[in-house]
Known about the structure:
Layout: H1 2-22, H2 27-49, H3 55-72, H4 74-90, H5 97-115, H6 118-130, H7 134-154, H8 161-174, H9 176-179, H10 185-206, H11 223-228
Helix pairs in contact: 1-7, 1-8, 2-7, 2-10, 3-10, 4-5, 5-7, 5-8, 6-7, 6-8
Amino acid sequence: MIGTIVNAGAIIGGCLVGLVVKERLTENISTTIMNGLALCILYIGMSGALKGQDTLQIIICIAIGALIGEVIDIDKKIKNLGDFIEEKISNKKNKKAQDNISVSEGFVTASLLFCIGAMAVVGSLESGLHGNHATLFAKSILDGVSSIIFTSSLGIGVIFSSIAILIYQGSITLLASSLSTVLSESVISNMSAVGSLLIVGLAFNMLGISKIKVANLLPAIFIPIIFGLF
């Protein structure tokens, strides 16, 4: 769990720096930074999506994942959690909806970006199976820097994504021994490809091109595991 704890700590540290920097940034600068970061995220997503080994399987995973996600409505539940956190930390019952959305957006956007991807899965497996935390340490640096930029633009909601990291990566680390036989190279590759497509959707949302409910597509990331059983 050391790698995951360091990862969460890096995000918290980056967020604290971002809160300090935020006060010194104008709205135009924040907007430009977010647009630039969105383009970088789009590049990362497209690069990862092209590494998938089975296009048909990826399409099926997205379709099934979307169905499950919409039935559960993960997007709404995560946003409600963000709103709940905002209400608790603000201690104000009559807050504007826009403030709630801001915290929800920061929490959801950062959580999705930090949890989706091959480094989160592979790094957690290496940490749990071999005690090798190198991948998660490298990821910690990337997430820490990203959290500075996200927090300076999206606010305090980003810091709560560290909780999502602890739960998501921590669970994989603790279950690594039982998951190792299922998560073959091809399964991880397809999981990464599906996750990368979700990152593309996240980038489109950040650029204002679309309003994709990326959270409702999250189950798609785990569907390749089912294919790996057969």
